[in-house]
UniProtKB/TrEMBL annotation:
It comes from the Eukaryota. Residues 2-96 form the MD-2-related lipid-recognition domain. This is MD-2-related lipid-recognition domain-containing protein. It comes from Oppiella nova. InterPro entries: Ig_E-set, ML_dom. SUPFAM superfamilies: E set domains. The lineage of its organism: Eukaryota, Metazoa, Ecdysozoa, Arthropoda, Chelicerata.
Length: 100
């Protein structure tokens, strides 16, 4: 069973595209691209945030995240970015434990 992740954010640029980037930063600076490890992760941000996006718009992103059973329990900084034509549309990070 997955966990529902909900993000509300305000757009700071006009952009015709949006791409999600999701990483776990482990102790020692080891960087793991979670988008490649999570089955079915959709990097195309325009699928959940219709493009183009416009400066000043408020958007909501929701995603039912399921951690694969083979994932070990790890402590990490989780960093999510939504990247548009002119750089980051959204960037946020949390420190926590990834558990299956």
């Amino acid at each position: 069973m997955g966990k529902l992740l909900i993000l509300d954010f305000k757009i700071d640029q006009y952009s015709t595209k949006a791409t999600w980037d999701l990483h776990a930063i482990l102790a020692g600076g080891i960087d793991i691209d979670l988008s490649k490890l999570i089955p079915g992760f959709d990097k195309d941000g325009c699928h959940d945030t219709p493009c183009p996006v416009k400066t000043g718009e408020t958007k909501k992103f929701s995603y039912n995240l399921t951690i694969p059973e083979t994932t070990p329990t790890i402590e990490a900084d989780i960093k999510a970015r939504l990247i548009g034509d002119s750089g980051d549309i959204f960037c946020g990070s949390v420190h926590g434990h990834i558990v299956k």
